Amino acid sequence: MNINSNSFKAPTSPTPPTQAEIQQLQDQLIKARDAFQAHETELQKLSTSRSKLLTQLNENEMVKKEFDLLESDAKIYKLNGPVLFKQTKEEAENTITSRLDIINNNLKQIETNFKDIEKKAMEQRNKIFEYQNKIRSLTAPPQAQ
Question: What is the pTM for the complete model shown?
Answer without folding.
Answer: 0.73
